[in-house]
Amino acid sequence: MMSTISPSILNADAANLGAALVAVSNADFAHVDVMDNHFVPNLTWGLPVVEALVNRNVLPLDAHLMIEDPDRWAPAYAEVGCASVTFHHEACRDPKKLVKEIHRHGALAAAALKPGTDPKVLKPYLSELDMVLVMTVEPGFGGQAFMPQMLPKVQEIRQWLKAENLEIRIQVDGGISRANLAQAAEAGADVFVAGSAIFRANNPASEVEVLRGIAQEHVCH
Ligand SMILES: O=C(CO)[C@H](O)[C@H](O)COP(=O)(O)O
Ligand SMILES: [Fe+2]
């Protein structure tokens, strides 16, 4: 199975987000964290900024929506050209319908779980998803410490996917770095978001290569 490195531009220079994408253009995706100051206690950017970044055509974008009412807002992120749209299960009223809407607008659909959310909530619509995002920090801020206690959740979801022969990716997001990526890969993750580890490195593009090398060696399904 292919592994994917998706740099999060959350802690890049907010006045130069286009340049941040160019700095990691060797990655597979760019991860764009949308926060509304309601679902999480932080505010980033919204649809017009994300649309402008899509139009730079540097990398496919993965929008991680940490917002209330994704049922209303998520399809628009697909419509402006995000390659993948991730909503939080906890905020969503009708996940089955939302997944259909995201697909109808041409994007891959993913559901995210906060650290305290039992993965069993995904069971009713798991097979319709393209990806599951297991948060490895409390959503809201970059630069937090990776929570190793989330690895059993990754393992559990990977076992369900294997048992049901489902080709669904598992993304981990929060505190991922060269120190823990191998563990996450061995637990069953195959899409790795890293913000501070990449943008605080002297050379973000070479850090992408380092993380990709670790992923290729340890992704194991
Ligand atoms: O969703 C997020 C926070 O809610 C970010 O994607 C994530 O935290 C990336 O930054 P870092 O690698 O610094 O943790
Ligand atoms: Fe994120």
TrEMBL record:
The entry marks the following residues as binding a divalent metal cation, namely H31, D33, H64, D173
Q: Reaction catalysed?
A: D-ribulose 5-phosphate = D-xylulose 5-phosphate
Which example biological process does GO assign this protein?
Answer: pentose catabolic process
User: One MF term from GO for this chain?
Assistant: D-ribulose-phosphate 3-epimerase activity
Q: In which pathway does it act?
A: Carbohydrate degradation
The UniProt entry, under Gene3D superfamilies, shows: Aldolase class I
Question: What does the function comment of this entry state?
Answer: Catalyzes the reversible epimerization of D-ribulose 5-phosphate to D-xylulose 5-phosphate.
Name the record gives this protein: Ribulose-phosphate 3-epimerase
Q: Supply the source organism for this entry.
A: Boudabousia tangfeifanii
Provide the organism lineage as a comma list: Bacteria, Bacillati, Actinomycetota, Actinomycetes, Actinomycetales
Q: Which gene encodes it?
A: rpe
